[in-house]
């Protein structure tokens, strides 16, 4: 333990961390390992002491038992990072801190807060002269310790005092930190939320690929681990594909079976994916892949319905694919194409959120800071960055030359996978909705004209014409002539 630990010297710590569960404690250690003096606080001091006992030698920590002691340990303007559970717990800690802080001090919420809460809190703190920074932090426990991807929102001015420290402890790719100022108030938590939505989608797609290999080709978990390890050497190179291979290779100590085969197939969620879809519904952005992923988790947990439906006829199913190597390559291509769609949808939601709230988020910057540290880090984020660098107002990633090429070369495989899976009776909501999204966007005339006409028929909701400006209504219950609306 350093000399500073247990020392009541005041005003020496550059950052304070309150909430010392695994994430908070790892991030505090990360700061300390980078040479910062870190003030520690936790509701119960046992956690603080445990951290000091186990890791106190990693750097300079200042122990505190009470909020006044904690704040007195910090240099001014004070920077306090809150790492507590999102929701009511966060509000309680913020208020406790705010009551004892001085104008100009900075409160950083590093949890997965709902961005509308962050907007509210930022406003309330600004009225008290305090800076409030909602910072999305991704990378799990390991990232928190060794370099996460950090998405701080809040006032630009607070980033000046805080940014360099956050950049230092973040992951770095090609020497570039995976941290940048996202924009005002709730923008940091908004992009973290969408990050998680993409994470859900990516995980669902990987799950579908796994199930196709397992049930379509009868491969064992270790065999599928080899497939994912191989895929990770190419354009699918990503953290989630890499850990998938590691998970599938893991044996269960109790039974000797692959661990994945003894885990209950009911996916849980803490809520960020659901928030992403709710927000997308409000913004009118079709994040179909993310929505399918959220619903697929809910379906897996619909135990009563699943139990009731077991044994329902599958109809006539096709034989297993006759060329396993080809089918495996088709699945790889379908996964890549569907994944591009997931990111395209997520970036559209970020563009829409940015426009709605006036955040001025730069999508290329996001692609840059998601290249390392975070859960969705992937090699192809470099390509996303290039695409937005070339055209910051790109309407959709799928038309950027690199992605257009990738999708067009994958599309035959993608269709084969969707139709083969359907003929095999294997559910693929992610793959099929991504392909439908692709087909819908490239379709010149969608059936929406009919929907407009139906709406006009039963509700006089009016429609626009392709050959004239303005709105029109047909007198459906009258002589069926058209009148301007
Ligand atoms: C991250 C993760 C992290 C957390 C998810 C899990 O970026 O580090 O996204 O935030 O693991 O919230 O979410 P679910 O419990 O909803 O799957």
Structure description:
There is one protein chain. By secondary structure, the chain is of the alpha/beta class. The chain folds into 3 domains: 167 residues, Rossmann fold, CATH 3.40.50.720; 250 residues, N-(1-d-carboxylethyl)-l-norvaline Dehydrogenase, domain 2, CATH 1.10.1040; 37 residues, Single alpha-helices involved in coiled-coils or other helix-helix interfaces (Up-down Bundle). It contains 19 helices and 12 strands. The protein has a 7-stranded mixed beta sheet, with helices on both faces. Helix 1 links the parallel strand 1 and strand 2. The longest helix is centred in the C-terminal third of the chain and has 34 residues. It binds 6-phosphogluconic acid (6PG). The site of 6-phosphogluconic acid has 13 residues, from helix 8 and helix 11. The site of 6-phosphogluconic acid (6PG) has 13 residues, from helix 8 and helix 11.
Number of helices: 19
Structural class, by secondary structure, is alpha/beta
Q: CATH homologous superfamily of the largest domain - what is it? A: N-(1-d-carboxylethyl)-l-norvaline Dehydrogenase, domain 2
Estimated share of beta-strand residues: 5-15%
Number of domains: 3
Shape: globular
Trace the largest sheet across and list its strands.
Answer: 3-2-1-4-5-6-7
Q: Roughly how many Å is the radius of gyration? A: 26 Å
Task: Give the termini separation.
Answer: 77 Å
Oligomer: single chain
Which percent bin holds the helix content? 40-55%
The CATH topology of the largest domain is what? N-(1-d-carboxylethyl)-l-norvaline Dehydrogenase, domain 2
CATH class of the largest domain: Mainly Alpha
Give every kind of bound small molecule, once each: 6-phosphogluconic acid
CATH architecture of the largest domain: Orthogonal Bundle
